[in-house]
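User: Hi! I have a protein structure encoded as tokens and I'd like to know what sequence might fold into it. I'm fairly new to this, so please keep things simple.
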């Protein structure tokens, strides 16, 4: 790009107007004239991190399901077959896929008789901390700092938002849950410190407004919602001025990015209009901005993450895809049974297979994120090459509430920290924390000697 004067645009340039604040994707215009090497200073050295938790484990974590390879493939190394597994939808992305199977989360188990039965109310908090939750219904909760917050504390402070926490189902984060556990444990993936759980956002409208500063005051937000206008309407003049000073490739890149912002906002508005129309809803208690469709809701959250990465507004997201003990039905999966009831399959082979189909549907939805990250580039490199995506659960076989043989995979290359096209099956008794310790090493925590109940790093690339 080039301004005729030879000046350039700052990487932290924002378009502002009427309470809206929209950042810009990385443009050639941000490189000073005559300094081509300056691009390296604009591209973040640190990978992006997205961690997703899916409750209730997987069908392949059951002993019979494991013999049928319903979650992890039979082969290890490079030549694994995803066909029989619930991860089959990831086949087009196998070069970006690192499967880690047969790990345990023993810190989610009961440590004494009083804790027996409370597995659902420990699992979520354990997943990213790999620590054991203090049993309490009061405010004196204690577990550990989650890996996403360790990452945000060290590498997220140079972005406007150090991290964002999203969820698909409603969470309470107050009061007591069964088995004498505070609900904050089952409703919090991210822990800024051992005593500080972070709230999650379920409503795409709320997340959109946080990212784009949509309406600086309550009055401005209310006025925009009444007119159903776009945040970009207040920026038309500024966008036109900027666009006129860009060369063709930058102009096209800016147009594509702003079209993505406008399209996502339009989808949120249509959801609000539909849900405010008075028609019966499948999820009547959900905010108007929350779609009844699970897929539509998750895809909105994925689009928000990609747009935030393009602006470099934040580099860390967590997304809780379901709530423990949720009975939600997913009609698009073809399985018309509640998630939690079906997870208690009583070792019935037919029901285990139905549960595997539900697991497959949840994985298939994640491929939308991988595609969006792959088609979005930064400095000519797909964001998927710069991102570590974590997907898993601290619950194994949900029928017996155990925490063994857990589902876990990583997607993306994380700036080379993950090679991809790899299935690692660990020896029995290996802590999941070992895999997370190695992931953290790849993300820049070379000084981290242990994480949770880790016993040793677990190399996540092919042996040399």
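Assistant: Happy to help. Inverse folding works backwards from shape to sequence: for each of the 464 positions I chose a residue that suits the local structure. Here it is:
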């Amino acid at each position: 790009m080039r301004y005729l004067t030879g000046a350039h645009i700052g990487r932290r340039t924002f378009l502002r107007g009427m309470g809206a604040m929209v950042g810009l994707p990385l443009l050639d215009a941000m490189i000073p004239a005559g300094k081509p090497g300056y691009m390296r200073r604009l591209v973040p050295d640190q990978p992006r991190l997205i961690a997703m938790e899916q409750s209730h484990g997987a069908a392949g974590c059951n002993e019979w399901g494991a013999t049928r390879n319903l979650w992890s493939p039979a082969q290890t190394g490079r030549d694994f077959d995803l066909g029989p597994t619930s991860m089959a939808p990831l086949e087009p992305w196998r070069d970006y896929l690192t499967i880690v199977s047969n790990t345990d989360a023993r810190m989610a188990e009961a440590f004494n008789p009083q804790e027996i039965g409370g597995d659902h109310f420990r699992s979520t908090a354990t997943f990213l901390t790999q620590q054991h939750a203090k049993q309490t219904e009061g405010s004196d909760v204690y577990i550990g700092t989650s890996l996403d917050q360790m990452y945000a504390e060290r590498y997220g402070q140079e972005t406007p938002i150090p991290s964002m926490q999203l969820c698909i189902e409603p969470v309470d984060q107050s009061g007591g849950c069964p088995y004498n556990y505070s609900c904050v444990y089952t409703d919090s993936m991210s822990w800024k410190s051992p005593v500080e759980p972070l709230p999650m956002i379920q409503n795409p409208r709320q997340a959109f407004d946080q990212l784009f500063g949509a309406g600086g005051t309550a009055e401005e937000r209310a006025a925009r919602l009444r007119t159903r206008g776009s945040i970009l309407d207040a920026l038309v003049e500024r966008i036109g001025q900027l666009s006129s000073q860009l060369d063709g490739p930058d102009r096209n890149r800016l147009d594509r990015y702003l079209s993505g912002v406008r399209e996502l906002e339009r989808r949120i508005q249509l959801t609000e209009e539909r849900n405010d129309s008075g028609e019966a809803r499948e999820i009547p208690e959900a905010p108007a901005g929350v779609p009844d469709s699970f897929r539509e809701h998750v895809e909105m959250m994925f689009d928000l993450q990609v747009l935030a990465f393009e602006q470099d507004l934040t580099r860390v997201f967590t997304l809780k895809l379901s709530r423990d003990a949720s009975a939600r039905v997913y009609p698009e999966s073809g399985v018309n049974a509640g998630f939690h009831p079906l997870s208690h399959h009583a070792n019935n082979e037919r029901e285990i297979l139905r549960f595997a189909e539900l697991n497959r549907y949840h994985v298939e939805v994640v491929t939308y994120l991988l595609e969006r990250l792959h088609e979005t580039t930064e400095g000519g490199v797909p964001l998927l090459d710069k991102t570590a995506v974590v997907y898993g659960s601290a619950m194994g076989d949900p029928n017996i509430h155990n925490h063994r043989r857990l589902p876990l995979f990583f997607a993306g290359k994380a700036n080379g920290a993950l090679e991809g096209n790899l299935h690692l099956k660990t020896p029995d008794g290996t802590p999941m924390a070992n895999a997370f310790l190695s992931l953290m090493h790849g993300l820049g925590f070379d000084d981290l000697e242990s994480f949770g109940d880790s016993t040793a790093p677990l190399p996540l690339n092919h042996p040399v």
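A useful reference point when you look it over: The domain at 44-202+290-442 is CATH 3.40.720 (Alkaline Phosphatase, subunit A). Feel free to ask if any position seems puzzling.
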